[in-house]
Design a protein that fits this description.
Layout: E1 7-8, E2 15-16, H1 19-40, H2 45-52, E3 70-71, E4 84-89, E5 95-102, E6 105-111, E7 121-122, H3 131-134
Antiparallel strand pairs: 1-2, 3-7, 4-5, 5-6
Helix pairs in contact: 1-2
Bound molecules: zinc ion.
């Protein structure tokens, strides 16, 4: 038998073969945490990326996007209105979108920054919340 040494991420507990890999992964956690803090404070994706280098680049149509912009993603909940906003940046760089496009309530999913789902961006005051959902309460 052979004794092995592993390195455990202090944030999520994942194990790594080398200290270098583990350190790199932990730095990613810190960058993602910082990126999410900036997102919550209203920074644009371009500002976030310049500071934390989450993505190789931010597509032009998303450079000025903030948590307050909304996106129309027709095939989600069959909703043809901009109902989804960016809530969180995940470890793998995908963005969690969330919103209420239909009567069955809130829905969310993670999308890549270069996804066509993020092509149809709208101003904050256009945010749609399905009124049928609200009126059920
Ligand atoms: Zn981790």
């Amino acid at each position: 038998m052979e004794k092995v040494t592993m390195y455990r991420c202090e944030y999520c507990g994942n194990l790594f073969d080398t200290a270098e890999l583990s350190a790199k992964h932990e730095q990613r956690h810190r960058n993602i945490d910082g990126a999410n803090e900036m997102l919550r404070e209203g920074a644009t994706l371009e500002q976030i990326n310049q500071r934390y280098k989450i993505w190789s680049n931010v597509p032009d149509h998303l450079k000025e996007a903030t948590k307050d912009n909304c996106f129309r993603i027709s095939y989600w909940q069959c909703c043809d209105k901009p109902a989804y906003t960016m809530r969180e940046i995940k470890m793998d760089g995908r963005i969690r979108l969330f919103g209420c496009g239909s009567w069955n309530g809130y829905y969310g999913s993670d999308v890549r920054i270069d996804s066509t789902d993020l092509k149809d961006i709208h101003q904050p005051d256009e945010l749609f919340i399905d009124p049928r959902y609200e009126s059920r309460w």
